[in-house]
Design brief:
115 residues; mainly alpha; rod-shaped; transmembrane helix
Length: 115
């Protein structure tokens, strides 16, 4: 689960930024400024759900559940790697949620249609 959050969290930020930028023209032409809030809300919700999943995985990794590693590797090292990846995924997910919220703030406060 940690690898998914590590990769998808920053990709959500990039997709949100690109999609919101692409929707400025149609949103302003049709006087539908609320159209710009839709990709922000969806990406923030997905990012938050992924971060909560990473938090749950980090609790499981800290509890010492056995890792799915081959028998020839060191089980302590595999557990440490799993714990590191889950905590890193948690940090990246939280940072991605913070960036999406920071990108949403100007859209919510300033009207992109009045330039």
């Amino acid at each position: 689960m940690g690898w998914i959050v590590l990769l998808v969290g920053p990709l959500l930020v990039l997709a949100d930024l690109g999609l919101t930028y692409a929707l400025v023209g149609p949103g302003c032409n049709g006087q539908r400024g609320a159209l710009l809030h839709l990709p922000m809300a969806v990406s923030f919700t997905l990012c938050l759900l992924l971060t909560l999943a990473a938090l749950r995985a980090s609790w499981r990794a800290g509890a010492g559940e056995p890792a799915n590693a081959p028998a020839s590797t060191d089980p302590d090292a595999a557990q440490e790697r799993r714990c590191f990846i889950t905590w890193l995924a948690l940090a990246i997910g939280a940072l991605s949620c913070l960036v999406i919220a920071a990108l949403w703030l100007p859209v919510a406060v300033l009207s992109p249609c009045t330039v």
